[in-house]
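Service request form, structural biology core

Requester: graduate student, group of Dr. S.
Request type: structure prediction, single chain
Budget code: on file
Notes: please return the result as structure tokens.

Sequence provided:
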Amino acid sequence: MAENQKQATLKTYVGDMYSMESHIEEALDSQVSSNADHPKASAETRRFHNMVRGQRDAMKAHLETLGGETGGAIKSAVAAVFGMAAGVIDKVRSDSISKNLRDDYTAFNHAAVGYHMLYGTALMLGDQKTADLAERHHKAYTDAIQDINQIILDVVAWEMKKDGHTVDESAAKRATQTMNKDWKQTAPSSS
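Core staff response, request fulfilled:
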């Protein structure tokens, strides 16, 4: 493969992830204030927002080192579709904190698989610097996904109580424990 073709491929993948990070950061901007009523969700949302902003900035800088542009020139189909979906969600979403977290979970999984693709692509093309960056960002998203797993039912229970429901909070803890067990059982063996 010619070096310029390799660079073009890497610029496309890095540009896709820069665009995705930008879209996720925009969605989190509004959640910083809308999730403020729940202490755990508020703290996690602020942390997610800082993480995504830092990753967006790192992807922008890396894209520029590859000779790519971050202005309006990078328009990937993946980022455009994600952006449209995020825009629609923002318009129909209620102020439910649990729904915000559910949407974040979806966006973070989308970003995680994108970083997995970038990581593999960079390794296959022999670009260790891009691979290292993609691996760090992938790990940050998988950690954030697991963090949402741990608080989502606490938020749901809190919202149900606000709506006047009597809630068995031990059931929420049991459900989270079951989900954690399911994740462990479905993890591939390290062979």
